From TrEMBL, chains A, B, C, D:
Keywords: Gluconate utilization, Oxidoreductase. Belongs to the 6-phosphogluconate dehydrogenase family. This is Decarboxylating 6-phosphogluconate dehydrogenase. Residues 290-314 are annotated as: Disordered. Pfam families: 6PGD (PF00393), NAD_binding_2 (PF03446). Residues 160-313 form the 6-phosphogluconate dehydrogenase C-terminal domain. PROSITE patterns: 3_HYDROXYISOBUT_DH (PS00895). It comes from the Bacteria.
Length: 314, 314, 314, 314
């Protein structure tokens, strides 16, 4: 079928390619004229036959919002927009209502697959009215991986991105679980072949998974991960997961701990730990590492006392 | 090769069967004469040709300890014991030292695979001296899954069980991550097809894994998990993981949270939360759910005041 | 000075009383005519001399919003509203902007003190323009405790409730710390006199605090907290604290854990733990506690095997 | 009464002084002859009249163990040793049994009070047989603060240090709660007067406490805590608390999070976060901060694509 694709970056460009390989007629628009088939959204609308379907694949938040608003200005009643970006489900619900007022349909679609999607297909989690989801089903069929899985129509508008958000929350927890296991193995001197242990787990174990496969690959390239810093961004979906859980009074200790570990990894120094150091200094005369690099003698400072006394307290 | 197998329960029995299918000569001993090839450990030692190899597959802790001590009394210098149970790595180190004093070799082997191992093979994590590991390599080769993974000689004595312990710690974190994701999806009314979302994730996503496959199977059998209670045992290895981390000053927030969630699941009522309720009652006159089922009127109790006031505090 | 007080419930009624004892002229309004000085907000506005000051002391959220909107309709430019409820700081900023457009001033004030405030005074955390805060300073001076502390002008509009929100977040963490300590003492059979231990900590220790005093009182009334269920509400400010932290990428592991413990305390059964139970059942044939109360025999079920085998895994 | 004091460091020296001010006859021993009253433990035993009482105030672990063993060699049946250090309760139970075999009594005593104890008294948590505790009660009476609290006979041997251990666990949680609150206030730009907010909380609030007083003092000396690094030791008792909880299946999310925050504060770089970074790089081509300081272009790297695409995943 024919579809417009707005945003031909790393994700959108590859998805357009997979769709073309699948026989679809893709008209692409991007701010970069070098990769764009049309020079404007107006031209995109002209090139597409009504009723039109346009897939939006730009960053979530303001860029997606601006793109959907601009499209609403050039599309017609009966047309349909699919938001394939990483939008917040709350934004979906607003977008759906605004477009509905203009007679334009809206489907949200969470996409997983990353750089591997072109060849292997993209996992798609979709929200929207059944009739509208049905209209773009040929597109979904081509984008998704072969086989019976990799696609779900999860519910009405917002359900696709909500499901994708929870997927990412689970991913945060799984990644942190592997990370903690690796750190513990490295900290102990008992297991000598840590990459070998990870590799061995790929068969016959409970934790075998694609993330484990990636972990093995990473350790093959850099067995002690010496070339990396312990620094991790978060993409927003982890935060939304935690905030949704707080709103729903659902305890998420593991996913939240994984998110907080990422927050902490980006701090040069922990502000909270300055407070702990300050309090320890106040009540116990504990040794404190000061900015100047000198160390004050404290109760637990070796050599401070002839017979080193026990600490007064923690 | 020839091997003795002590403990022919659910795990040991199936492992003996897999070994026999692989052409090995297994002499089994169990307390239950109905499944045992010999009537005593003495007879087991007689039936095996020196230098003997005996695989111990009984519960960790006291049963394993007692079995190894009894074997030490009937085996000879040059013989070898493999502990395939879920022993603590600290116990391994003690067992290894005690057996070494008698000239008996010792190898520890963490085993993963559960009820699926007979057909698919068992993942094996092994610790011990290279020469001793080499002696029982034919056994390991038969037990492990086909393919290049599923086996690691992780280090010296204790390294096998340490690696298995960490594997289980990672498993705790992964399971809890899936569990939290499911709870959040169920708590929200946005995603209508929760089993469908999990099923869709089996292809093209970052979280695809054997645990996800099992989750899909569980949801196929019982879509809302209505037939289960939210109650989970822990097997000891999660506890050892956390204690090892505490000893090594390694922060394990996710694995620990997963362990604590299991602890909490087994409490009829949370003692800690009684304290929180008691304190809230003391400072704020907050509504308290008492044992008697009656609810005292408190500051946040609707109807307690004509114009319900804000809470004084948390 | 003269002030209107809207909301004469448990908090507002006592604050009005403390203000009258301090010589202020308080005109109170409540939906309950039995405690109200005037029959409507219109009459309240008539009774107060311009420029008027009105303290709003009703539940946060919709009741506060509706009250402020209604007051905006009866007050005049130059008047001032103080929101003493537990409002979200984001609501304050909206209320401030809306009132400013009508020439009406706005000050937000977080209040701590609970049922003890009438006698001991209320801790006040205030946000707003300096000139407007100054106008109601006589009121703050009377409400606050004697002494140099108990009052802060923390910043512009929203700062008062933000500071109160963080105060409550800290309170959540402290309460949970005491709660965990008590649970651990009770779980061990080493310390026989748990109430005595708490009482002893009131002097000379690092943890002496008002919450400890309350804890001692609670244990005097009910030494084993038998009369309470482990069930705790949360007032909203804990949730806002966590959400603010997530927005600001600040890790709050302790405050969040305290909030989640409250969430979990209100669940009859943990949905997440059903998943853990289901997964354990899938991979290991682990014993599962089913709704029907029967227990399936599993790998770790005593008696399931003649020589109980080790668990396959966690 | 007469008492020997072994260990005259920062804690023991001040305790000896408080005892002398209280009229007791203290014979002190320290490895440093400059502060010691006797030149050896033998001489200490000679100087004390039987039945002797000796207070041991040296670091926990090996120093305490060695001191108690040495004392056991010079004391006589009927004598009594008090361990006032921060010993593990498990060590107490071993020491008690070993001394009992020689007819020597043993009392364990957890001490809180730090550098403030000389003037204000020390909080004492005591374990042991009633008759033996009674024998040294005059010493406890002088050491403890004035007033009815500050002392508990918590149970038999080990109960004193167990209670002190839990006290310190609670302390960890409380300190972290204040620390997180401060970090959140600092991270937001809404509250301008953070030290003022803390100071205000000293009266009328739920969180007023000695730790808050110390926090206010610390912020008076260094309002932004600029002179400190976010680096905190742990004294061992936090670790024991967590391990005791794991043994007893008691969930301690807050105290554990506080301990882990200290562990993390001492890491230059988080090993676990290297794994998260490595995995993100593997699956998403996410930007990675490498050791060399250069940043690889990734999916979320501004400028990497003309229309920046959404991330494939978290």
């Amino acid at each position: 079928m024919q579809i417009g694709m707005v945003g031909l970056g790393k994700m959108g460009g590859k998805m357009a390619e997979r769709l073309r390989r699948g026989g679809h007629d893709v008209v692409g628009y991007d701010r970069d004229p070098a990769v764009s088939d049309v020079s404007s959204l107006e031209e995109l609308a002209e090139r597409l036959q009504a009723p039109r379907a346009v897939w939006v694949m730009v960053p979530s938040g303001e860029p997606t919002r601006a793109t959907i608003e601009a499209l609403a200005g050039v599309l017609s009643p009966g047309d349909l927009i699919v938001d394939g970006g990483n939008s917040h489900y709350v934004d979906d619900q607003r977008h759906g209502a605004e477009l509905s007022a203009k007679g334009i349909g809206f489907v949200d679609c969470g996409v997983s697959g990353g750089v591997w999607g072109l060849e292997n297909g993209y996992a798609l989690m979709v929200g929207g009215e059944p009739a509208e989801v049905e209209r773009v089903m040929p597109i979904f069929q081509t984008l998704k991986p072969e086989g019976e899985d990799g696609f779900v129509h999860a519910g009405s508008i917002g359900a696709g991105h909500f499901a994708k958000m929870v997927h990412n929350g689970i991913e945060y927890g799984m990644m942190q679980a592997f990370a903690e296991g690796w750190e513990l193995l490295e900290a102990s001197d008992i297991v000598k072949d840590v990459p070998g242990a990870f590799k061995s787990w790929r068969q016959g174990t409970v934790i075998r998974s694609w993330l484990l496969d990636l972990m093995v690959r990473a350790l093959e390239e850099d067995p002690d991960l010496e070339r990396l810093e312990g620094y991790a961004q978060d993409s927003g979906e982890g935060r939304w997961t935690v905030k949704a859980a707080v709103d729903l009074a659902v305890p998420l200790p593991v996913i939240t701990a994984a998110l907080y570990a990422r927050f902490a990894s980006r701090q040069d120094d922990s502000p909270a730990m300055k407070v702990v150091a300050a309090l320890r200094n106040q009540f116990g005369g504990h040794a404190v590492t000061s900015r100047a690099g000198s160390v004050e003698k404290g109760a637990d400072s070796p050599g401070a006392d002839v017979a080193p006394p026990p600490e007064a307290t923690g």
